[in-house]
Write a structure and sequence with these properties.
Blueprint (H helix, E strand, L loop, with lengths): L4 H13 L12 H4 L4 H12 L2 H12 L4 H41 L2 H4 L8 H4 L24 H11 L4 E6 L20 H14 L4 E9 L14 E4 L14 E7 L17 H22 L10 E5 H15 L3 E4 L4 H11 L4 H8 L1 H14 L2 E4 L2 H7 L8 H12 L11 E4 L18 H11 L4 H7 L9 E5 L8 H10 L1 H6 L1 E5 L11 H16 L6 E2 L9 H10 L3 E4 L8 H8 L4 E4 L4 H8 L2 E4 L4 H13 L1 H14 L5 H14 L11 H5 L6 H18 L8 H13 L3 H10 L3 H5 L3 H9 L14 E5 L7 H18 L4 E6 L4 H10 L9 E4 L4 E5 L12 E3 L1 H6 L6 H19 L5 E4 L7 E5 L8 H10 L4 E6 L4 E6 L4 H12 L6 E6 L6 H5 L4 E5 L28 E4 L4 H10 L3
Parallel strand pairs: 1-2, 1-5, 2-4, 5-6, 6-7, 7-8, 9-10, 9-12, 10-11, 12-13, 13-14, 15-16, 15-24, 16-17, 24-25, 25-26
Antiparallel strand pairs: 3-4, 17-18, 18-19, 20-21, 21-23, 22-23
Helix pairs in contact: 3-5, 4-5, 10-11, 11-14, 11-39, 13-14, 19-21, 19-25, 29-31, 30-31
């Protein structure tokens, strides 16, 4: 073989290693065999796996060269390139990925858990992983989704669920959402998520056992937006009337809550400051619906949501707050995750991290996703890849640790106070009832021709084909917004530079709706202009279609047109969270070419109806499209596979799995559900009823208790008889009163008597319910002289109308109850002036009481035990405390300062407090949150009192959440609540600045707290709205200015 040294060296390598083909244990993977078989590699990889047409083209080009030396060199380069590159990719790529994954997993598992948990998964852990979808028979060997094979299966499921009457709440905040004629592609916020949540709500509403589904979103009354988006309520038409629950309020509804600027339609990046306002409005609506449903299906008892499901980061943040306020389970679906998007944009190298944060508010979005993980019971994803590669990037979630904790829970073994939500793969569903694709037989062309002669073509067909010189060629269809992440420019380049592909097919780009490019958003118009320039550059006129308008109802016709021409559907996005359009295309008989990043991997695995490509590799996109368009046998096989396996993505399958996961969640409801009083007067608009109830109580007290301090026997008999006949709140109060000692009954201090009753396990009537306006002092300057002056000033303002009983007073602080008591006593502030005290950064609520019995350290306050139970969710207790003590100790050792941070007594089981000597030497709050989340400890860390104190409280507790609790529990009117605060405050300061309550900001107060916000992951400006009418700022802490500010707020 003279002159063919490359062949000689190849054969010598084969002879040196040995054939390996007859070895039963032979394998290409080095980690399995420990050596490499070139013979097997050449046969199975070079000859079998690589595209035959490409090899032939390369061989023909090399063989046509007359110069034998150059010919041999090119042949050598071709073969060795195939061998070496593919071998290195397989060897190094998988090996490096495995090492990175192992390193990340080991570094993220908390050390305290490593000591108690085995490194290898046990059999129970291995067998309880997230299920995969199998295209074979509809059921995988690991317990995947089951196929609905008959009507009997659905009937059996309906029989099992018919006794349940669930109320489910879904939340999706951004974009324009309506049930019919959705304007998908109108902007970057109105995309696939909008369609998904609407169809999910409609499908759940038709499931047996589900009485009502509410999809909560934003009410939009902006100019240029259709009036339908301003309708408060829209009923969704059911998929099948036979499956729906019958009832006055049953079914699925879109509920639009007003929040944010009333006359503006704003993008999702600017919604963050207004989310607390949505939470307050949604809370009011759910309480109202709870009462309505109690009369219809609850036998007079409140019907709380079975779950609250947040979609995307903004809705996840809102769902976390609503779930915490109502104490009901939360579910979360990210759709698209911030950390993954940040990495993708940084890889492009076009923007810095600061620029990305300014444009997309990406750090606030990531924090919202972390909060959602902290609170969620279940994380619903569309693909397994999303769990392993995307959620694994978050501090609050570790897939390996989640499996270990789940296994320990099943065995009733301690998890050391750690909690992690359960990730579940539930692919989005689709309604296939109206889809009638071609059968895929040999007579398809004849059938399509006959149909075209008898039925007119849909109008959208002519709108697309008018661009083409030859409209009969196969259509390569892309349906996506002109967004950079959709990668449409790379698709156009691939099509333009591949002459063979242009000769065989046309390209259709459905890029939403537009009237004028200049009126589009900046990024969308930039992408569209780039595409138009590329069309001109490659002279693709007559080969590319890009219609300006289409209706949502015309999308099925667009799929049918592409399928009739034997075309291909392509999704070239850099990363696709799921890819619902791929499912739709498969249902209409279209093979797919899709990105290998994200959901299409699972879709391809389930449907086996196309090819996956690297979205960054322009040539691979062109090759995959050419392969499907040119090979009609492969095209038909992909089409048939898609149609056979599409049942895996039906809505009934999705909803069955969805409801099963809800049923597995531990039921959580408000702790005071048994208390009729708390429920009966939960509406903030009816303080008159509460006042009338108290007047009735006063009259009853005067009639029952005589001057000698004894109870008249006839009165007592009447009272007993009445209590047996009626379960009214007044009767219950009289029963409690009758049980009191005679000494307490005869006392002249009615406040003492009421407080004693309130000190029972269920506090029944604080003064908050009868107050029309409540002032909340939340000035975070510490218990100093300035704070005393502010308190006295507010007292003077409030005391003017206090005699009429119309105004309430609440103190909201990071201090403990003992610190507050000492401060009030030294400052001569009357305890009875307050209706409630929110202490320890919101982990405790106390009410004033003249009785010291049962109160901490015999102080004149009584704790709200219901609130204590309410915030106990996922509280780590002593395990959390031990971790914090260890963290503080290591910090002292590292800084060589024994007094740097020292534990102190918060007098609360739900607050661990530490005194800080030097705040500059302490890690910022974002680092502490990251540390605790990586330990799977669900809590809030708050730096307070100008950086001299650290409070760690439950994840569902905060000062803002405490106010919502008072609203839900006692009917305190949030809309008539005035929060008084400084221009800076504790690190939980931002949560009090938003909502439907009114806010007075005193400038110049709490300036020392500015340092607490100097090292944030996102600036305060991203989450605080200063242009809202509910916030008024005053220049100085003076009485006349505060009164003027309250007048502006119409207090």
């Amino acid at each position: 073989m003279a002159g063919n040294d490359w062949i000689n060296s190849y054969l010598e390598a084969i002879l040196d290693v040995g054939p390996g083909l007859d070895d039963k244990n032979s394998s290409l993977m080095l980690r399995e065999r420990g050596k490499f078989s070139p013979t097997r590699y050449f046969v199975e990889e070079v000859i079998t796996k690589f595209d035959e047409t490409d090899l032939r083209r390369s061989w023909a080009m090399a063989s046509s060269i007359r110069d034998s030396e150059e010919r041999n060199t090119r042949l050598e380069n071709m073969s060795w390139r195939i061998w070496n590159l593919a071998r290195q990719k397989k060897k190094l790529g998988e090996g490096a990925q495995q090492k990175r994954k192992q390193k990340r997993e080991l570094s993220r598992v908390p050390k305290p858990l490593l000591a108690d948990m085995p490194e290898e998964l046990s059999e129970g852990e291995k067998g309880d992983t997230v299920n995969d979808i199998s295209p074979k028979g509809g059921v995988s060997t690991k317990g995947g989704m089951k196929r609905i094979n008959s009507v009997d299966v659905l009937k059996n499921f309906a029989t099992q669920q018919k006794e349940k009457k669930l109320y489910i709440v879904l939340i999706s905040l951004h974009g324009l959402i309506r049930g019919e004629n959705m304007e998908l592609g109108r902007d970057s916020d109105t995309g696939g998520q909008v369609k998904y949540v609407v169809e999910l709500a409609r499908a759940l509403g038709a499931m047996p056992g589900v009485y009502r589904v509410d999809l909560l979103t934003r009410q939009v009354l902006a100019p240029g937006v259709d009036w339908s988006y301003g309708e408060p309520t829209e009923m969704l038409n059911p998929l099948n009337d036979d499956d729906c629950e019958s009832g006055e309020s049953s079914g699925a509804y879109i509920i639009r809550i007003p929040f944010g600027p009333k006359d503006k339609y704003i993008p999702k990046e600017l919604l963050w400051p207004h989310i607390p306002e949505f939470v307050d409005g949604a809370l009011s609506y759910i309480l109202h619906m709870s009462k309505v449903l109690s009369e219809q299906i609850g036998d007079g008892k409140p019907v709380w949501p079975a779950s609250i499901h947040g979609h995307y980061a903004d809705a996840g943040n809102a769902a976390a707050l609503l779930s915490g306020a109502l104490n009901v389970p939360m579910l979360f679906t990210g759709h698209s995750l911030g950390r993954d998007k940040l990495e993708q944009i940084l890889k492009q190298g076009r923007q810095s991290k600061d620029d990305i944060n300014t444009t997309y508010r990406i750090m606030r979005r990531i924090e919202a996703e972390e909060i959602s993980v902290d609170t969620s019971e279940v994380i619903i994803t569309s693909t397994r890849q999303e769990i392993d590669e995307q959620w694994g990037l978050y501090d609050a979630f570790d897939p390996v640790l989640e499996r270990k904790l789940r296994a320990r829970n099943k065995r009733n073994v301690s998890c050391f106070g750690r909690f992690t939500p359960r990730p579940i793969v539930i692919p989005p569903g689709m309604e296939f009832k109206h889809i009638v694709p071609n059968s895929g037989g040999v007579d398809d062309d004849l059938q399509g021709h006959q149909e075209s002669l008898t039925t007119p073509n849909p109008p959208v067909w002519s709108e697309i084909t008018r661009f083409f010189t030859n409209p009969h060629k196969p259509i390569i269809l892309a349906l996506a917004r002109p967004d950079p992440k959709k990668n449409l420019t790379t698709l156009v380049k691939a099509f333009g530079e591949c002459r063979a592909l242009r000769d065989l097919a046309n390209l259709t780009l459905i890029m939403g709706n537009r009237d004028n490019i200049d009126e589009m958003s900046g990024t969308n118009s930039t992408v569209l202009l780039s595409i138009l320039k590329l069309i001109d550059k490659y002279d693709m006129y007559g080969q590319v279609s890009y219609p300006k308008h289409h209706k949502q109802s015309e999308v099925p016709d667009i799929y049918r047109l592409a399928a009739r021409t034997k075309g291909v559907f392509i999704n070239p996005a850099f990363i696709e969270p799921f890819g619902l359009t791929l499912i739709e295309a498969a249902a209409y008989g279209l093979p797919m070419v899709a990105t290998k990043n994200g959901g299409p991997v699972d879709i391809k695995k389930a449907l086996d109806n196309g090819l996956l490509v690297d979205p960054h590799d322009q040539q691979s996109i062109a090759d995959a499209l050419l392969k499907l368009v040119a090979d009609k046998q492969l095209w038909s096989k992909c089409k048939q596979n898609g149609l056979e396996n599409i049942h895996l993505f039906s809505w009934p399958e999705h909803c069955k799995t969805y409801l099963a996961r809800i049923a597995c969640c531990r039921p959580r409801y408000p702790q005071w559900e048994s208390c009729a009083v708390g429920y009966e007067y939960s509406e903030s608009q009816s303080p008159e009823d509460s006042l009338r109830d108290l007047n009735d109580l006063k009259i009853s007290l005067e009639g029952v208790i005589n001057d000698q301090g004894s109870v008249d026997s006839s009165q007592k008999a009447d009272m007993t008889s009445q209590s047996l006949k009626s379960k009214s709140s007044v009767g219950k109060k009289l029963e409690n009163l009758a049980k009191l000692p005679v000494k307490e009954k005869s006392g002249g201090n009615k406040v003492e008597t009421l407080a004693r009753i309130g000190s029972q396990d269920t506090i029944e009537f604080p003064g908050l319910r009868r107050n029309k306006t409540v002032f909340v002092v939340a000035v975070d300057c510490g218990l100093t002289k300035d704070f005393v002056d502010i308190m006295n000033m507010i007292h003077e303002i409030v005391r003017v109308d206090k005699k009429g009983g119309n105004l309430g007073f609440i103190l909201s602080t990071a201090s403990s109850i003992s610190e507050i008591h000492s401060f009030m006593k030294s400052s001569n502030i009357e305890f009875s002036e307050f209706d409630a005290l929110i202490c320890n950064s919101g982990s405790d609520i106390y009410y004033p009481s003249s009785s010291c019995e049962g109160s901490p350290k015999s102080l004149p306050f009584v704790a709200d035990s219901d609130y204590s139970s309410h915030v106990d969710y996922r509280w780590g207790g002593d395990h959390l405390k031990n971790t914090l003590v260890h963290w503080a100790s290591s910090l002292r050792e590292r800084k060589e300062d024994k007094e740097l941070i020292v534990e102190c007594d918060s007098e609360s089981k739900h607050c661990f407090a530490f005194k800080i000597k030097n705040f500059e030497s302490i890690p910022p709050v974002k680092d502490l949150r990251e540390f605790l989340r990586k330990q799977a400890l669900r809590c809030r860390a708050v730096y307070c009192q100008n950086g001299t104190k650290l409070n760690v409280i439950p994840v569902v507790a905060s000062r803002a959440q405490a106010l919502r609790y008072l609203y839900v529990r006692w009917g305190m009117n949030l809309a008539n609540t005035v929060v008084i605060m400084g221009d800076y405050g504790d690190t939980d300061y931002e949560c009090l600045r938003g909502g439907i309550h009114k806010t007075v900001v005193i400038n110049g107060v709490c300036n020392e707290a500015r340092k607490l916000h100097s090292n944030r992951s996102y600036p305060l400006e991203h989450v605080i709205a200063n242009d809202t009418p509910n916030v008024v700022q005053v220049e100085e802490c003076k009485k006349d200015q505060v009164i003027e500010a309250m007048a502006k707020l119409q207090v």
